[in-house]
Write a structure and sequence with these properties.
The chain is α+β, with helices and mostly antiparallel strands and 291 residues long. It has one domain: 4-Layer Sandwich (Deoxyribonuclease I, Chain A), CATH 3.60.10. Helices cover 23% and strands 25% of the residues. The radius of gyration is 18 Å and the shape is globular. The strands form two sheets. The chain has a six-stranded mixed beta sheet with strand order 3-4-2-1-12-11, with no helix packed on it. It has a six-stranded mixed beta sheet with strand order 5-6-7-8-10-9, covered by helices on one side.
């Protein structure tokens, strides 16, 4: 334990001042798809830590480096009181700077929760359908609270067609509640209930998001048993906005057959002039359907 704490502190000190040299490799086959998960952190009135105006330019730089084809966002929310807010400053900012993306799993906040959109390159992909379900005893009721009555948490999804290959697949975007292990367990079981029949029927699925659970936990075991393949991650993805590496990865990419992973899972650990885009490292994986 002592060695672990020492190594964690040393890693934190190093990463706080160092911008990692992630190289962008587009030498993969043209039909490979880069999927990314990005917990962008919410916006709230009077916010000092992770102030949006201070970090929004770092978000743009980070997204340019990641260069994903499909990105699932969590906490893309501007709090204004009440159950929802139609304003989404983060999404407006990103679509202003990245015209190649279109927002799926998104709609009028009164009928579709808009805080976990899935952005995709519209020249390559077409959205065929979208939906959501909440992690609660009434999953179809929008903004219903979680199983133990805490703040609403949910899964958004987008059915996409690849115009290059004609193949379609469903992308699920989750954000599990961070405090309660029971909530996470029940949320994972609900996700499994929704996805397992699709996989059993031969449909292709990718699951992205912040599960607030390392890969070895029962929560993640439930998802892997769907069955889905977990893309392995080396090191932390949540860094407390300080570059501290204290716990294993809690942001993940999982996928079903026939997808196959190309190369390693990337954790985008760059900061920009000392400013972190968010308190999570974005995660990306390149997937391909073998031919």
């Amino acid at each position: 334990m002592l060695l672990f704490l020492i190594s964690s502190v040393l890693a934190a000190c190093k990463s706080k001042h160092e911008v990692s040299a992630e190289s962008l490799d587009r030498s993969h086959p043209i039909d490979a798809i880069r999927f990314a998960s990005f917990n962008i952190h919410y916006i709230a009135a009077g916010q000092k830590k992770l102030d949006w105006d201070n970090r929004k330019h770092a978000v743009v730089k980070s997204l340019r480096e990641i260069d994903a084809d499909i990105i699932a966002f969590q906490e893309m929310e501007t709090f204004a009181g009440g159950s929802f807010n139609r304003e989404n400053r983060q999404l407006d900012w990103i679509t202003q700077h990245f015209s190649q993306y279109r927002a799926g799993a998104f709609g009028d906040a009164s009928v579709y929760p808009g805080t976990q959109p899935i952005l995709y390159r519209h020249e390559r992909f077409e959205q065929l359908d979208q939906g959501f379900f909440f992690f609660s005893d009434t999953p179809e009721v929008i903004y219903s609270r979680t199983f133990n009555g805490s703040w609403p948490a949910f899964c958004s999804w987008s059915l996409l067609k690849d115009k290059q290959t004609g193949e379609s697949f469903t992308v699920f975007n989750v954000h599990f509640e961070y405090k309660s292990m029971s909530n996470r367990s029940k949320s994972a079981k609900l996700v499994s209930q929704r996805i397992r029949p699709l996989v059993a029927n031969g449909q292709t699925v990718v699951l992205l998001g912040d599960t607030n659970a390392p890969g070895f936990t029962p929560t993640m075991r439930t998802l892997k048993n769907i069955p889905l393949q977990l893309a392995p991650s080396a090191g932390a993805t949540f860094h407390l906005n300080r570059g501290w590496h204290l716990i294993p990865a809690i942001d993940h990419v999982l996928y079903s057959a026939p997808f196959r992973q190309l190369g390693r899972t990337r954790l985008w650990r760059n900061n920009y002039d000392g400013v972190w885009p968010t308190d999570h490292y974005p995660v990306s994986v390149d997937l391909i359907v073998p031919r």
